[in-house]
Amino acid sequence: MQKVLVFTDLHILPDGGTIIGLDPAARFELAMDHALAHHPDAARIVIAGDLTHNGAPAEYARLRALLSDCPLPVSLMLGNHDRRDAFNAAFPDHPRMAEGFCQQWHDLGDHRLILLDTLDEHAPDLHSGWLCPARLDWLDAALSGAAGRHVTIFTHHPPIDTGFAAMDDIGLRNRDALLSRLTRHGTVAQIISGHIHRAISGSAAGLPTAIFKSPCHQMPMQLDSPDCHLSIDEPGAYGLLLMMKTGVVVHAQDVGLPPAASLRYPD
């Protein structure tokens, strides 16, 4: 068994910046410290997009500093709040396609992690996602080369509707093109996404799909709200994937709660 730690929707701001009174960098540090203390044996950390809040160089510089002492390999993805040029300038050596998209894959024994880039900087609504033909062709090659491994797909924008009306309106616009490829290859065990700022599980074309909360601010449980910018101060969280020989087990861990001792209930 191997472990993969998953963070998403960091929304890092420059020093002194806050979102609904919360410092995204401090919240990320709290979650990262918890994850590394409890799972120092993890094989990799995946950060699934919305690395920053505005895609500004100062925000990426702060993220780079936050990750500078991380003892584990870190894979970064882009979300709708990111900006490709500023990210590339801050992380010039990070893996990317020849066309410049931030897509990569990693093999962990019986598993292959495939990380996709759903950022569309020209989205008509500013925040929805898109996978162009070049990115989808790259995905086909990554799936074909998985050699029988269990495949976990990472996207920032989920390939499912979640019931949050405003967030579903800014989802992955060509999800059918993605899902047709995933089901055709028949090796995908799990899809992992962010974007919604809630812990959600579902099924996309029969494939199990898990969405993780942000370490910072969460989406309030108001399904019919037309406002995709609503936020609430609930505990931050990260994801833990257990890569088993038989497949993938998904856990979500809240952080920042008051310490509590474990108690044993009577038999």
UniProtKB/TrEMBL annotation:
InterPro entries: Calcineurin-like_PHP (IPR004843), CNP_phosphodiesterase-III (IPR050884), GpdQ/CpdA-like (IPR026575), Metallo-depent_PP-like (IPR029052)
GO molecular function: 3',5'-cyclic-nucleotide phosphodiesterase activity; metal ion binding
Keyword Metal-binding in record: yes
Annotated EC: 3.1.4.17
Domain of life per record: Bacteria
Residue ranges of every copy of the Calcineurin-like phosphoesterase domain listed in the record: 3-198
Keyword Mitochondrion attached: no
Protein name: 3',5'-cyclic adenosine monophosphate phosphodiesterase CpdA
Native organism: Roseovarius halotolerans
Enzymatic class: hydrolase
Keywords per UniProt: Hydrolase, Iron, Metal-binding
Coiled coil: none
Protein family per UniProt: Belongs to the cyclic nucleotide phosphodiesterase class-III family.
